[in-house]
Amino acid sequence: MDFAFVSGNPALDLAGTVLSRRDEPIDVLAAPTDLERWVTACDELPDRVTADVATFESALSLREAIYRLALGRVLDRPFDPSSLEIVNHTAGGPVPTIRLSDAGLRMSGDLRAVLSHIARSGIAVLADPDACLKECGRVGCTRIFLDRSRGARRTWCGMDGCGNRVKAAAYRARRRASATTEDRETARTT
Ligand SMILES: [Zn+2]
């Protein structure tokens, strides 16, 4: 399965690796190797890390903590204390090194450092009173994203995954509705 990086922040993207959380949750990080692939696929993180079982478990607990805090922000509720504890503790760990060159920024570090970076990045967005966090508008999609659009008018987590699906469904519904009306018209006039 392809990973989606549409949330505008790596911590929110990590939280988004569980799809449709309220209906039938699908966890796209089923094993440590999935997490390794996810880190490689994320532009903001090192190209390559290895995940042992213990660090993988830490990543999943960080992910769930970030999700609960982000949901708290969306619902305008106080942060869950145990989730704060996890995120704050992870953020206090060693951080990746970054280097600038003509090729841009290059980040390196192990998975622990990556988790620390993700926790810090999550804290920055969760602490920002101007950050507009939203849950995707498609029913069933529980992804939380950072809306940076002008006037904060974004509705979907991503156009490919959700926006187009909703629009296509609405189009089909309209066609069905107009076809039904035509049938009725035909029935009436014949
Ligand atoms: Zn969505």
TrEMBL record:
It comes from the Bacteria. Residues 133-175 form the Zinc finger CGNR domain. Coiled coil: none annotated. It holds the Pfam family ABATE. This is Conserved protein containing a Zn-ribbon-like motif, possibly RNA-binding.
